[in-house]
Amino acid sequence: MNEEKIMAVIEAVLFAMGDSVELSKLQHVLEIPEEEIRGMIQLMNETYKRQDRGIYIMELENAVQLCTKPELYEYLIRVAKAPRKYVLSDTLLETLSIIAYKQPVTKLEVEKIRGVSSDHAVNKLLEFHLIQELGRLDAPGRPLLFGTTEEFLRTFGVKSLGDLPVLNQDQVEDFRKQAEEEAGVKVEV
Known about the structure:
This protein is an alpha+beta fold. The protein contains nine helices and six strands, in the order αβααββααβααββαα. Helix content is 52%, strand content 14%.
């Protein structure tokens, strides 16, 4: 299969699926190495950019998805009704941050860190498809484990969890001091 045909197959599969497609599935269909597929996707994105096309291929860990360029979103809204927008309150962002950095994590662990019930926040994040159930912890009561989803990666524009910002020790110490002051207690790390 020549390059044009490979790119046409990738584009057709991604368009038809409408959701992310694992690179291993593309590799199975195309019968070429994953690195060659990655190279084709990079070439396709360069072509889309050079031709000022309205699409690009987003990479998500070990999957890819055909997407509309974010700067063209306003035109989509004019054609279709505005997609459901969700608001991430401070509580939801705090809960989501804990889950993103600690996953897989139980709701009880999230609540221990936050110091308050997280039922509502976890349910909302599940509803928004930003987190998902990953299974159950092998412990008494078999609590559910939660982790982030591909939607989380798309929403925050990161390829993988490894791309999340890392806090340095000075920031951690500042946060600890602020928490101590707010709570009026000494926090041990």
